[in-house]
Design goal:
Elements (H helix, E strand, L loop, with lengths): L4 E6 L8 H10 L9 E4 L12 E4 L8 H5 L5 E3 L6 E3 L9 H5 L6 E3 L4 E3 L5 H5 L5 H4 L6 E5 L19 E4 L12 H4 L6 H6 L12 H19 L10 H17 L18 H22 L2 H21 L4 E2 L10 H12 L3 H19 L8 H24 L4 H22 L3 E2 L16
Helix pairs in contact: 8-9, 8-11, 8-12, 8-15, 10-11, 12-13, 13-14, 14-15
Amino acid sequence: MDNCNGFIFDYSKCVGCHACLVACYNENQTVPPVSWRVINHFNKEKLPLLGFIHQSLACNHCIEAPCLKSCPSGAYSKDAITGAIIHDADKCIGCKYCTWACPFDAPKYNEAIGVIEKCNFCNSRLKEGKEPACTTNCPTGALSFGFVDMDKPKGFGISQKPISPRINTFGDEVLHSIPTLDMDAAGTEGYDVTQFLKKTTPSPINTKVEWPLALFSFFGSILVGWFWAGLIGNSIEFPLWLFILLGSISALISVLHLGKPLRAYLSIINVRTSWLSREILSMGIFAVTAFVGLITGSFSLIIIGSIAGLLFLVCIEMVYSVVRKKYSTYIHSANTILTAATFFTFFANYYDLLLLLLVIKSALFIARTAIIEVKQVPLYTLVAFLRLFFGFVLPIGIIAFNPNINYINQLLIAFILIAELIDRALYYNEIEPERPIHFERELVVKKE
């Protein structure tokens, strides 16, 4: 089977009947509500001056599949004959990272069994010379299977990332062939189209869902900054048992994020291409070298641990490189390297540098959250204010007073901890995986 074969979709023919979806259910015996193929309905409000189209989409079995590259456990593979991207549930740890990386929302997390499921291209049918079940059951010919021109520009709702999805689209001109409709008859007179543009789609990534990741990355930043400070002779000393306890809690929390926690050992299988694998491996190297180095006093292990800690933080940031950001700054205030540096300056008694970092992080936080409208999300605004109050106003007052007094110093670290934790938690509400629905604003057509 030619690996350049793939899905062909015509927007002008799709009526949103869901026949392809039902065919997928029948062929693969999937259990609702998990559906490997999804029908995206754009402009659900049916505004008369906006295009109203459907889009049938499943896994496009990309040449440079982001799910295969991002999966830490090596649960994905490419069939050498058909080029289909196949998922092995027995190797899946349920981390859901592939759902972040895929811009087509193809991998589906099955909460009932704790692993991912996805379209397999009807791989067995392809090897028998047949077409996928979804294409053979489309009654209008909107969805078909055949040769895909990889050089053809991608149509509406298809990601422009350099991943080479095996899909061609046609009929995009329907977006610009909208008949004139009287606004009064449609009952939408006075409708503000700008509100349509501002609407957002709920993201599967948020603080409530991803709290284990928020705490894991937060504790990791503290540990690395604390360890770096140990290289300074006059740093604040804390008991070793507390360092070990915090590291153990951090590792345990990270496992809670997995659908299959007992398979956590598989998370370092794909170090070659997965930033998540690299994150876990570098975290392990940091934990071991830091622990042994602190006990034995080995200078070489301490240096290795310091470098591994930095790599660990870099990997954390790169894990989130696959998602969309709702902010525009290149570096965000919850950046784990900046957070580690903040704790380093505190533990090392570098209060001038600490003050500078608090100013920088507060400015970045304000820039990051400026897109949020106060009147729309008052609770978010209150939490943001608390982050600035505890992370900027109070610390500046304490440092100006005298941070060397013991109880004052304890207040300072308490305020910084609260502010940094709030910042990290809010960060997960400001990222989202790319989805076809994000292209909906392209439907806006100016009325002539």
